[in-house]
Write a structure and sequence with these properties.
heterodimer, A: about 425 residues, alpha/beta, Aconitase, domain 3, 3 domains, 5-stranded parallel beta sheet, 13 helices, 18 strands, globular, B: about 170 residues, Aconitase, domain 4, 7-stranded mixed beta sheet, 7 helices, about 25% helix, about 20% strand, binds iron/sulfur cluster
Chain lengths: ~425, ~170
């Protein structure tokens, strides 16, 4: 029977599956991070299990609150270190980077089944991995059993044609799509991205797109595994992890959306919901007190490069703070090597250590009352950046860099 | 299961996990009795002072969207809420709530106002609005999730069954 990409991946673990089935499957990677991890540890300890099933496939990432901003979170970090040592699993430490970026660089491979106690676990879908976020109890039990359960989702096909115009990227595409289908437009569904334009879509862009699949409510955001995947894995020194993986051409999709990339403009999502997305022209001139470039959505080298190309030789606006946070140690090192970090520092930016930084409102860029921020992150919910009296706009790194120069939301095509 | 009776505390559409328990309180996640004081703060500012044991939290579309933080259903449950009634619910939150043993019941909540007295009959699958004298039907909880809920959550379920009892194909 013809299978969607979702069915194909799950079928290799639970033969004969179809959308709607409930299955228990073996996991290839199980992970948590430092704000959901302490509860994972406690639930694991409560569960009655004493050993984790797959120490070699279990990772704790310290990324959300690093270096720790207060003693409570420092104590949480101690708890995680102690657990990891006893369990014999892996840990990524402060400064290594955001979990989803590290999962892409180091672990995820086509056909994997991955769970993480972080909603943006969907990011690894860009590599053809069935990767989804769950809560701490599900992840604790995943660690205990090496398995979890799923309801096999129905799929929506996002058929991409044409090519992006200048200064338009994967971030704009996913904001456009979420604006179109709504923040609950794909709840429980798998989004599968494919079409003629697939080969043009870099891994960096794919990761941004898959990352935000959850902002449309989706369970996974999958890309087929193709030459782009192979090249990316080779660049990470993991060429042997590659295998091609595509949906069958006549697979059964619940819905099909076609998008011509040539018609997508730079997009801005207005406060306080992600589907409040409009072409940048609608936001033009909105004053912003902070610009944040980074996160698991847009902190990769390609993002840093486009921002640096716009900021080169320029200064950020005197009334706008510019924060730049590379998504991993590797991204930071590469960005140093290519001179991008000097560009940011000369432009007046604060460069933050790899991690989640200002994204979730804990530290390193909490907004003041009435302030507005243009962020390259994935969420603009009220209170997200630490203050319910502040406003968050979401956009691409190009739009963010252009806006930092003018101190107001700016179409990056005006900077070409 | 049983009949639940209580008062509705109504929130709007798109109540995210950031509204339910903002990231700015992440340092309290290992101190749940303290964390619960801030439950729902950015969605219903007077929630903590109003909520009573047995109340229902009533949402609109896409309740619980956003992060995977299980602390969201945990603080809702700890604050005394007996069930969440909502038009639709985000996937991760739904699973987390069931894992914590708190029912999330899907129904048309348009007809429920803040402070209405409700009676929820889980077996019959109905909500009776005692204040407005009408009845709303509930969507069925999928049997696999119901089994977890009936054990009181995922931990008791796993302790009992030592794994997942999935339906045979
Ligand atoms: S960067 Fe932001 S969205 Fe990504 S994992 Fe960290 S807190 Fe979550």
């Amino acid at each position: 029977m013809a299978k969607t990409l979702t069915e194909k991946i799950l079928d290799s673990k639970a033969p004969g599956v179809q959308a709607g089935d409930i299955i228990a499957v073996d996991l290839d990677l199980i992970f948590c991070q430092d704000t959901t991890g302490p509860l994972v540890v406690r639930q694991f300890q409560e569960s009655g299990f004493t050993e984790i099933a797959k120490p070699g496939n279990t990772v704790f990432f310290l990324d959300h609150a690093v270096p720790s901003p207060n003693k409570e979170l420092s104590n949480d970090h101690i708890l995680l270190h102690q657990f990891v040592q006893k369990a014999g699993c892996m840990i990524a430490r402060e400064g290594d980077g955001v979990c989803h970026q590290l999962v892409a660089e180091l672990f995820a491979k086509p056909g994997d089944i991955i769970i993480g106690s972080d909603s943006h676990t969907v990011t690894a879908g860009a590599l053809g991995a069935f990767a989804t976020g769950m809560g701490s109890t599900d992840v604790a039990i995943g660690m205990a059993l090496g398995k979890t359960w799923f309801r096999v989702p129905e799929s929506f096909l996002i058929n991409m044609e044409g090519s992006f115009t200048k200064m338009v990227t994967g971030k704009d595409l996913i904001l456009y799509l979420i604006g179109k289908i709504g923040a609950d437009g794909a709840t429980y569904k798998a989004l599968e991205f494919s079409g003629e334009a697939l080969g043009l879509m870099t891994m960096s862009q794919r990761l941004s797109i898959s990352n935000m699949a959850v902002e449309a409510g989706a369970k996974v955001g999958l890309f087929p595994s193709d030459e782009v995947t192979r090249k990316f894995l080779e660049e990470q020194g993991r060429g042997s992890d590659y295998r091609p993986l595509f949906a069958n051409p006549d697979a059964n999709y619940e819905r099909i959306y076609s998008i011509n990339l040539g018609y997508v403009e730079p997009m801005v999502s207005f406060p306080h919901v992600v589907d409040n997305a409009f072409p940048v022209g609608e936001a033009k001139g909105i004053k912003i007190q902070q610009v944040f470039i980074g996160t698991c959505t847009n902190g990769r080298l390609e993002d840093i490069a486009i921002a640096a190309s716009i900021l080169k030789g320029k200064k950020s606006h005197p009334e706008t703070r510019l924060l730049v946070c590379p998504a991993s140690r590797k991204v930071l090192m590469d960005a140093i090597g290519l001179g991008y970090i000097s560009t940011f520092i000369e432009a007046g930016a604060v460069v933050l250590p790899p991690g989640c930084a200002a994204c979730l409102g804990l530290h390193q860029g909490v907004l003041g009352d009435g302030e507005s921020c243009l962020s390259t992150a994935n969420r603009n919910f009220k209170g997200r950046m630490g203050n319910a009296e502040a406003f968050i706009y979401l956009a691409s790194p190009a739009t963010a860099a252009a806006s930092a120069i003018r101190g107001e939301i700016t179409d990056p095509r005006e900077m070409m | 299961m049983k009949v639940l009776k209580g008062r509705a505390l109504k929130a709007g559409d798109n109540v995210s996990t950031d509204h339910i328990i903002p990231g700015r309180y992440a340092h309290l996640r290992s101190n749940l009795p303290e964390l619960v004081k801030y439950a729902m703060e950015d969605a219903i500012p007077d929630f903590a002072s109003r909520v009573r044991e047995g109340d229902f939290l009533v949402g609109g579309n896409n309740f619980g969207l956003g992060s995977s933080r299980e602390h969201a259903p945990i603080v809702i449950k700890m604050s005394g809420i007996s069930a969440i009634l909502t038009k639709s619910v985000a996937r991760i939150f739904y699973r987390n709530a069931i894992n914590q043993g708190i029912p999330v019941l899907i129904c048309n909540t348009d007809e429920i106002n803040d402070n209405d007295e409700l009676e929820v009959d889980l077996d019959k699958g109905t909500v009776t609005n005692l204040t407005r004298d009408n009845e709303i039907s509930l969507q069925k909880v999928p049997p696999f999730m119901l089994a977890i809920l009936e054990e009181g959550g995922l931990l008791p379920y796993i302790k009992k069954y030592k794994g997942f009892i999935v339906p045979a194909k």
